[in-house]
Amino acid sequence: xxxxxxxGGPSVDTVxxxxxxxxxxxxxxxxxxxxxxxxxxxxxxxxxxxxxxxxEHGEGEHVGLMEFLRAEVSGAFRLRAGEDRVxxxxxxxxxxxxxxxxxxxxxxxxAMGVRTELAVAGAVDKGDMDPVExxxxxxxxxxxxxxxxxxxxxxxxxxEQGHIYGADQRLPFYQEIEFYxxxxxxxxxxxxxxxxxxxPGGMDVVLEADRRGGFHGSGGDSFGRWRVGHDEAxxxxxxxxxxxxxxxxxxxxxxxxxxxxxxxxxxxxxxxxxxxxxxxxxGHHGGPGLGAVAAAGAAGLVGGFVAxxxxxxxxxxxxxxxxxxxxxxxxxxxD
Length: 335
What we know:
Blueprint: E1 11-16, E2 20-21, E3 26-34, E4 40-57, E5 60-74, E6 77-79, E7 84-92, E8 101-102, E9 105-106, E10 112-120, E11 123-131, E12 133-134, H1 138-149, E13 153-161, E14 163-164, E15 173-180, E16 189-199, E17 202-211, E18 220-228, H2 230-235, H3 238-252, E19 256-257, E20 260-262, E21 267-268, H4 290-296, H5 302-305, H6 314-318, E22 333-334
Parallel strand pairs: 2-12
Antiparallel strand pairs: 1-3, 3-7, 4-5, 4-6, 4-10, 5-22, 8-9, 10-11, 13-15, 14-21, 15-16, 16-17, 17-18, 18-20, 19-20
Helix pairs in contact: 1-3
């Protein structure tokens, strides 16, 4: 009876050998289980990656936890009283895993953890949660670094439920990394959002500009899109690409890259118009010079990451959002 109530039962602790990983890389560590006061039949041990995701429900946005990777690292076994058992593991992190940390600074708005499930006699203990950080790939770092050189300042990041139109997206959410524009473009756009959809062979880079009204036309959103291999992306002049795209906005109200551009929204979830129904302008056009924009942002990108207060522990980040249930099956807290 005491065992059924969890009294004197086994304890579990997961230790990560790689608390910082990159998309597509291995997450390694070991699950350490300590036997309790009596022999226990363990049904399975499973690990999952969970993160905080925003979703539109009814008339508002709600925030909850979503599990996007799950694997059993052990099947059934009998754990003797007082026994110490160690289960090593190596899990492949999804290529689309969202970035949570850049150059040692956690992105405000992001929280991710590894949750350990220990199933005993039909009951599942999900009490052990360990923080994990996802660092950008070199190809992603090249794009992020270009925003810093252009003088953009980081605002926040979040995960949205939905899919990017035309992308080979496997996860049910995408990340938006938001930036404030440098002075050279402050009259053109309110902010720019960056989304990566990565795979083993390359990635989609999607930009969304929230345009100010009254500047060369009405306000609204404009989009740019690049599909590029990782090696090419790591050596591409992204500052020129981004600068040219923004310059096209100042000239024509919408810019583009590689045939995907214009006012059409690639974020395919309810309430938006048809994505990429027809092409926008192609190529790059004149506008504020790259040198002038880069000089305006000499402070760089990383300083913006520490400007906003962030949570220090994954438990603090998740506390209050989960309310005992996960995305799609539990309670939600209003954003």
